[in-house]
Amino acid sequence: MKARLIYAASESSADLYYATRFFAPDPFLFLQEPENGKTHLVTTSLEIDRARATAQVDQIHDWAEWRRQFKDYFPHQVPDDATLIGFFLKQANIVHLDVPSSFPLGLADNLRELGIQLDPAPEAFWPGRVFKTADEVAHIEAALEITARAMNCGIEMIRQAGIDDNNMLTFHGVPLTSEMVRGEINAQLVRQGAMPSHTIVSGGLQGADPHESGHGPLPAHAPIILDVFPRVDHTGYWGDMTRTVVRGQAPELVIRAWMAVREAQEIAFSLIRDGVSGKLVHDAVARHLTDSGFVTGPLADGRQGGFFHGTGHGLGLEIHESPRISPKDQTLKTGHVVTVEPGLYYPAWGGVRIEDVVVVEADGCRNLTTNPKFLELLD
Questions:
Q1: Residue-level pLDDT at 123
Q2: pTM reported for the whole predicted model
Q3: What's the rounded Cα separation, in Å, for the pair 193 and 142?
Q4: pLDDT at site 349
Q5: Cis before residue 323, ω within 30 degrees of 0?
Q6: For residue 122, which of 95, 102, 104 has the smallest C-alpha distance?
Q7: Domain residues for 169?
Q8: End residue of a domain, out of 125, 160, 177
Q9: 8 Å CB contact between 294 and 287
Q10: From CA 281, how far away is CA 69, in angstroms rounded?
């Protein structure tokens, strides 16, 4: 049995935050002993008091103290990070470690030169992280409530927009832009203690690219995709929600596409349960969209059209984590939290996507997203 080691900043390492429940912007060390499972956190004097107050580990150490101990042994050396980490490990008689696959390569090489054996984990470092506890589900629900309030601010701004003679949206006499709506959404997120991340407000033809964030004036009578996915500051859990709206009268083709996507999402909801194949769910969604008359594949101009992304992904301490609902088969299990986000995209008119988040249960799934779904915003 090997010890487990992580060296990273927990603000960017979900595995480290999961292990310690301690947020820090700079790298620190986490160690789990091999036999008794005792956990250690080693950080700087800058963070030591905050770590003692909040970190969920067995023992907390100050690097300054370990530097003093190192100097007692080697009075003429000034240790770099690898040397000090190696010294700390060898004092605990640990020379064989499992580390995440993202472990810094240079640090790994330096530790190996000091006689420390490191084995990168071939799969998830904490396999249990995909199974959300009741508290984690509650954190995700809270994140989704924050997301919904911000989403509704953006939708309300679009609802209040006027329509000019060129079928473009206006707001208080000026063109309403993607940037203005995104700014309103992001400001609401920050006020609620969440950090926005590449919020999408993509109107008209821009919506044909699923990850286009949107820019410039927004059109009337055309689909506008709003995709909001913030991370809550004090818990680290993410929300994720997409809605597609039209200010004015939606074209018949857009109405049909929106209905097909909405029905495909309901099909996914009906299939998701403990033990189901994610590929089976994805294939059923794709089949329904095709059967509804929306073909997927390269178009005449070489661009992609139709439904060409996965149906969903895991959500938790990372915005995209395991498992996936996609052509790559993964089995869904009780406690998984996943998005369900079918979409359709065509350069000729734009795109439609609807996204909710569900928790997988023994005999079905429970939708954690409460925001309503509608298409047209009419006078």
A1: 87
A2: 0.95
A3: 11
A4: 97
A5: yes
A6: 102
A7: 131-377
A8: 125
A9: no
A10: 57
What spatial distance separates the first Cα and last Cα of the chain, rounded to whole Å? Answer: 67
- State whether 182 and 243 are in the same domain: yes
Q: Calculate helix-pair angle for 105-113, 81-91, nearest 10 degrees.
A: 60
Predicted local distance difference test score (pLDDT) of residue 364 = 98
- Cβ atoms of 152 and 228 closer than 8 Å: no
Number of Cβ within a 10 Å radius of residue 371: 16
**Which string of DSSP letters, residue by residue, matches 276-312?**
-BHHHHHHHHHHHHHHTT---EE-TTS-EEB--S-SE
Bridge-based pairing state of the strands 321-325 and 200-203: unpaired
pLDDT at 94: 96
223-259 burial string, b = 16+ CB within 10 Å, else e?
A: bbbbbbbbbbeebbbbbbbbbbbbbbebeeebbbbbe
Which of 125, 151, 171 is the endpoint of a domain?
125
From the CA atom positions of the chain, what is the Rg in Å?
Answer: 25
Task: Kindly list the distances between the CA atom of residue 177 and the CA atoms of 105, 116, 157, in Å, as whole numbers in the listed order.
Answer: 44, 55, 11
Task: Give per-10-residue mean pLDDT for the chain (379 aa).
Answer: 95 97 97 95 97 98 96 92 96 96 96 97 94 98 98 98 98 97 98 97 98 98 98 97 98 98 98 98 98 94 94 98 96 98 98 98 98 96
Q: Please name the residue that has the structure tokens 């909405």.
A: 262
Three-class SS state of 175: strand
Using DSSP's 3-state secondary structure scheme, residue 169 falls into strand
Do 120 and 159 lie in a common domain? no
Report the C-alpha gap between 361 and 240 in whole angstroms.
20
- Co-location of 148 and 120 in the same domain: no
Pairing of strands 96-99, 117-120: parallel
CA–CA gap between residue 254 and residue 335 (Å, rounded): 35
- Assess whether 365 and 260 both reside in one domain: yes
Count of CB atoms situated within 10 Å of the CB of 195: 12
Domain count along the chain: 2
Residues 135, 119 share a domain:
no
Q: Which pLDDT score is estimated for 64?
A: 96
Distance between CA atoms of residues 80 and 258, nearest Å: 58
Per-residue pLDDT at 242: 98
Residues 104 and 150 in one domain: no
CATH number, domain containing residue 243: 3.90.230.10
